[in-house]
Design goal:
Number of helices: 8
Helix content: 10-25%
Oligomer: single chain
Largest sheet: 7 strands, mixed
Distance between the termini: 30 Å
Shape: elongated
Strand content: 25-35%
Radius of gyration: 32 Å
Structural class: alpha/beta
Length: 440
């Protein structure tokens, strides 16, 4: 995969959210297309239009279990004066040799079976005596239980119009029609259609492989005991799940301790399976912010075009960010802050669009809308920062959840939207219309 080099700026430059995102999307390139088997292509994006080679259904067929008949032979049929027809045999789904239905004849037919020559309609078995001579029946007896049902006579108690209960050839799609457009994400219905028209493989952009790792000597894996000063690693789980939700194949790497050499070696080991690397933690200005220490030197003469640029963004939460590429293939890397909310908000704003861009999607962003703020008091926001507050959205209204703290995981778990407060706004009164990012 090739990617352009990210822009760099001096350390004192305060990037806007839009500038940072623009830089990411200008750098990340869609993955090269490959041919995949249908089930392997689930979640991938088509790179070419798919044309129907054969009509669906490919032949006229019955939509009911019943009898294939000529319309004239059942005209005026009733329970008092049923039409009595000779049964010439069975027509089953997949049957190659078809019976001929002539005047005064009927063929027992199964759902999906081809309409035999001479037949013009299908009468459901419930409109007949099933060939048993005992009045209307509720279903068709299996041939193995009643072989006589495929011959002899059948009484038909209702008339049928031409083409009744017949699915016409090409009534779904016709040969030459466009089945799917390039850019379509392949879900179960699309894969069903591809299989139905005989396509066993399809050309797509593969799902991006995203490696997620968190940093911090204080991090402990869930189910392990906590020692003094330790916390559970939630970021790597949240971001791996978020990457999968965005459409990626995501790999979670266990938390890496605060050691620059260990971190760099771990990242380099993961590049073999990564189209994108995401780290969380260690990007601020502390003495133990090892991501900056480990990756600031990346991009030497041996790897021209590589390098990680660490930035300050005019946003809250998520001011410290890192972006660039690493390794011989210039694999994009996004370094996110370590606070859980900062990390997740940064993922939604920057990593998710990068994943969607790698997939080759035209629209990489979460949907946005306008909503009326419902709150007990005004929301405050620092001047010059674009703030993203957690919220719940319903019926055109949005309510904040929790406070502005970047460590409030419980509030994040109850949010389904982000409330956007622009850089030039310091207070938002209840009843004000605000921009909302819908998280799905």
């Amino acid at each position: 995969m090739s990617s352009a080099a990210p822009r760099t700026a001096d350390q004192d430059h305060l990037w806007s959210v839009d500038e940072h995102l623009e830089d990411i999307l200008a750098t990340v390139r869609p993955l090269e297309p490959i041919e995949l088997q249908l089930l392997d292509a689930q979640g991938c994006v088509l790179v070419e239009d798919v044309t129907v080679p054969v009509s669906l259904p490919p032949f006229d067929n019955s939509s009911m279990d019943g009898y294939a008949v000529r319309v004239a032979d059942v005209t005026g049929a009733s329970e008092e004066f049923p039409a009595v027809l000779d049964v010439v045999g069975d027509v089953a789904a997949g049957q190659a040799e078809l019976l001929q239905v002539g005047p005064g004849q009927a063929a027992r037919i199964m759902t999906g079976a081809p309409l035999p020559p001479g037949a013009e309609a299908v009468v459901p078995v419930e409109w007949t005596d099933g060939g048993l001579g005992e009045g209307p029946v509720s279903g068709m007896r299996a041939r193995s239980l009643a072989p006589e049902g495929a011959e002899g006579h059948v009484h038909v108690y209702r008339p049928a119009e031409a083409r009744a209960h017949v699915r016409a050839q090409g009534s779904d799609v016709r040969a030459g029609d466009r089945a799917l457009d390039a850019g379509t994400v392949l879900g179960p219905p699309q894969i069903a259609l591809l299989a139905a028209i005989g396509r066993g493989t399809v050309r797509v952009r593969p799902r991006p492989r995203v490696v997620v790792m968190s940093t911090g000597s204080e991090l402990v894996q869930p189910d392990e005991g906590l020692g003094t000063g330790q916390i559970y690693d939630s970021n790597s789980f949240a971001l791996t799940a978020a990457a999968r939700d965005a459409g990626a194949i995501a790999y979670r790497v266990g938390a890496v301790a605060d050691d620059a050499e260990t971190l760099r070696a771990t990242i380099e080991d993961q590049l073999v399976r990564a189209d994108l690397v995401v780290t969380t933690g260690g990007v601020s200005v502390g003495a133990y912010d090892v991501v900056k220490e480990a990756l600031s030197s990346v991009g030497d003469a041996e790897e021209p075009g590589s390098g990680i640029d660490f930035r300050k963004l005019a946003m809250q939460p998520g001011k410290p960010q890192g972006f660039g590429s690493i390794g011989p293939d210039h694999t994009p890397l996004l370094a996110l802050p370590g606070n859980p909310v900062s990390s997740y908000v940064s993922f939604e704003l920057f990593v998710r669009p990068a994943i969607r861009a790698l997939m080759g999607l035209a629209d990489v962003h979460r949907p946005r809308t306008r909503a009326t703020l419902t709150a007990d008091k005004a929301l405050t926001s620092p001047k010059g920062r674009r703030q993203f507050l957690r919220g719940t959205y319903a019926d055109g209204s949005v309510s904040p959840v929790g406070g502005a703290g970047s460590h409030l995981v419980a509030a994040l778990a109850h949010a389904d939207a982000l409330i956007v407060v622009p850089e030039d706004v310091e207070s938002v009164e209840p009843g004000t219309e605000v921009e909302v990012v819908l998280l799905g």
